[in-house]
Amino acid sequence: MTAIATPDTAKKAVILVSGGLDSATVLAMAKAEGYACYTLAFNYGQRTLAELVASEQLSQQMGAVEHKVISLDLSSIGGSALTDTAIDVPECGGEGIPVTYVPARNTVFLSIALGWAEVLGAQDIFIGVNAVDYSGYPDCRPEYIAAFETLANLATKAGVEGNKLTIRTPLMNLSKSEITAKGLELGVDYALTVSCYQSNDQGEACGHCDSCHLRREGFERLGVTDPTRYMS
To answer: Which residues does Zn(2+) bind (predicted)?
Structure first.
């Protein structure tokens, strides 16, 4: 994606954009707050690459200044149904932390976002983690975000020099329907988003995984049409 010129005086933010419903909403919220948005996605060995296409389309449509895709291979360590095809994607959450949890994923992603934020002179990093309608991932909790923010300000030149870095989590306490309603209010085109853990190359959802269930329920509770495309 070609970088868009932005005034040097504009406040900058790095936005983690996976291509899903939540991160698209976060991007729209950051844009509405007046940030010059620099979007970041990861090709980390996940099952579906359709979400990367979605992240670029969403970034372009919503006027991101620049969009980067970082390649790293978390499938080489495995341990998750999202990065190891030998582990089946479950169709319901079940008890405990589900096998769709990717070990250390948000820590890795936020660390790279932190590095780019330092280079850009951005003091805000946005991530769409949620502690209400989520799958029990430990790196989506408020305690984790607070701990990472402390680390960010201890471990960086920016933090040491008094330019406080903030990890922004505007979806933390919202239900899926509240997130969806906010995005619709801000004009997010959810037809572009891919939330399914195992969508095909065309971005069509399976309709059965935990992420599909949560997404569908959000639209149903609002009483609005779900634009998700499903596999036939």
So the answer is: 196, 206, 209, 212
